[in-house]
Amino acid sequence: MVDHASNFVPEDIVLGIPDGLLDTHIAVDIGTIGIAARMARRHDIPAHVAQISRLVIDLHREEDHPEVVPTTSDGHLIPGNIGADVEARLAQYHRPYHEALGRWLDAASPKLIVSLHSFTPKLESGGEDRPWEVGLLYNQDDRAARHAIRLFGEQGVTVGDNEPYSGKQFNATMNRHAEAHGRHYCAIEVRQDLVATRADQARWATMIADVAGRVALALD
């Protein structure tokens, strides 16, 4: 599943930001839709993909999270979201996405859920460079993540263990659809400069599919 796959903003929502920002990490997880599409087409891994920008509604936040409709992102003000009708956006976008995802998972009963995100090498608002090539995030259940961390490491990849973000704070979708149901999952963050091209996305799709398959077997 890909919570931040799209930078689409409906015509009736005016964010009040330069158009160019919609192509950056504040609006979309760069590279993730390409990875998910290749995993679906070439590796027969079904995908549940968001169709709305995280600047309209952040599907990877709880409904009561103060940033579910963000008014700032990485130092950029989102003026159109100040005073926005949060309830209307939850009803139109957030709830249908998660209700559909819940029904799909109930029907499919997957051995392993893969949640795809990507992260910028360095935040514009400051902080250190992020050296990790891929990160595995988890909250309470780290069973699948432990296997994935080892397997990515064996591929020579620099792996973040709950880095660059901690799943203890940022794990909303997996908390709801995986941990709450005892389902195994890998929440994977790939650094955006490594998945900027189709060739790079294809490479990572193959690697992630291989790791996910081996994790599922290890947990069986």
Task: Give an account of the 3D structure.
The protein is α/β, with parallel strands linked by helices. The chain has a single domain (19-219), classed as Aminopeptidase (3-Layer(aba) Sandwich). The protein has five helices and six strands, in the order H-E-E-H-E-E-H-E-H-E-H. The strands form two sheets. It has a four-stranded mixed sheet, covered by helices on one side. A two-stranded antiparallel ribbon has the order 1-2. A hairpin with a 2-residue loop joins strand 1 (72-73) and strand 2.
From the structure above, extract its key features:
single chain, alpha/beta, Aminopeptidase, four-stranded mixed sheet
Topology diagram in text:
Elements (H helix, E strand, L loop, with lengths): L31 H12 L28 E2 L2 E2 L8 H23 L4 E7 L14 E4 L5 H12 L4 E3 L10 H6 L7 E7 L6 H22 L1
Parallel strand pairs: 3-6, 4-5
Antiparallel strand pairs: 1-2, 4-6
Helix pairs in contact: 1-5, 3-5
Instruction: Extract low-pLDDT stretches.
Output: none
* Overall tally of domains: 1
Give the class-level CATH name: Alpha Beta
What's the helical proportion of residues?
A: 25-40%
- Our Rg estimate from Cα atoms comes to 17 Å
Number of β-strand runs:
6
